[in-house]
Amino acid sequence: MSRNVKTESLGNALSSAEYTNVAAASTQNKAFDFFGMLCESAVAGAAAGSVVETVLYPIDTIKTRLQAVRGGGEIVLKGLYSGLAGNLAGVIPASALFIGVYEPAKQKLLDVFPQNLSAVAHLAAGAIGGAASSIVRVPTEVIKQRIQTGQFASTPEAVRLIVAKEGFRGLFAGYGSFLLRDLPFDAIQFCIYEQLQIGYKLAARRDLNAPENAIIGAFAGAITGAITTPLDVVKTRLMIQGSAKQYDGIFHCVDTIIREEGSSAFLRGIGPRVLWIGIGGSIFFGVLEKTKQLLAHRRPRREKKRWSLKLA
Question: For residues 42-62, b (16+ Cβ closer than 10 Å) or e, as one string?
Fold first, then answer.
């Protein structure tokens, strides 16, 4: 009997849960190299983050300007790439930090939680990765959005004037609202992505290719982007207010928007946001998985080299 026939017979004999357990067990048997996984994940995250930010920056700019406008103001469509270079200086380390923390945390949590609670492990790992990267992501987001709304012309000018007028804390304006938006966002998006991957692999009984990863990433990003748009509006308003202090905090911001603009204001920019994050999820996860595959292919050669050095 051929190997393919045997594999097919095994798959037919096992229930879905049993088949998933077999796949999980084979993965867990591999040695867990924390430092190696952290480094590879960081490189993959940096590559994915930089590509997404460069390609989709104009859509993000339009989304930010839509959310920043109060009442019936006009949206300026000039300078859609304003602040990209400075933003990449923050996005690359932030993306590297996020994936670098997320992947090892995910593996450890999957060892702790039973197989039927893998979604909880993915949710928790996404939140942990988001919290770790927020140290870099928040100042990057503050500077980016103020440049996008025309408050500053460049990143050095933005940093200098924000610190001069608002102190170092100004770079972390809206930190609470950022966590309120991004921790659920990161947790939900990565959970949806990972769970869809598991289901697809179970059905196809093979690893996914780049287009399949991209499609799943787009679906996860679009859904999560739509769900978290109200939180994104609040975060944007708090981050761009500067020293004017129109809002005293998250709850005051929510109350003011409802009183002055109505609840529909919380969905402002949802179209560009869903488009941006949907396409971004497609690119991000596609590039992420491809980079991880390329790094994994290089791993045997590195391990063989280390082994030969030990023998010498």
Answer: bbbbbbbbbbbbeebbbbbbb
Q: Is the pLDDT of residue 11 over 50?
A: no
Encode pLDDT of 270-284 as tens digits. 888 898 889 999 999
Q: In this model, does residue 56 exceed pLDDT 60?
A: yes
Contact 95, 137 (CB under 8 A): no
- What are the structure tokens assigned to 244, written together? 């004017």
Of the candidates 289, 280, 309, 302, the one whose C-alpha atom is nearest the C-alpha of residue 91 is: 280
Largest CA-CA distance found in the chain, in angstroms, rounded:
76
Per-residue pLDDT tens over the stretch 107-124: 999 999 988 889 999 999
Global confidence as pTM: 0.72
CA–CA gap between residue 25 and residue 220 (Å, rounded): 26
HSE-CB of 10 using CA atoms within 13 angstroms: 14
What is the C-alpha to C-alpha distance for residues 74 and 49, in angstroms, rounded to an integer?
A: 30
- Is the pLDDT reported for residue 105 higher than 80? yes
**Considering Cα of 258, then 261, then 262, then 266, what sign does the dihedral take?**
negative
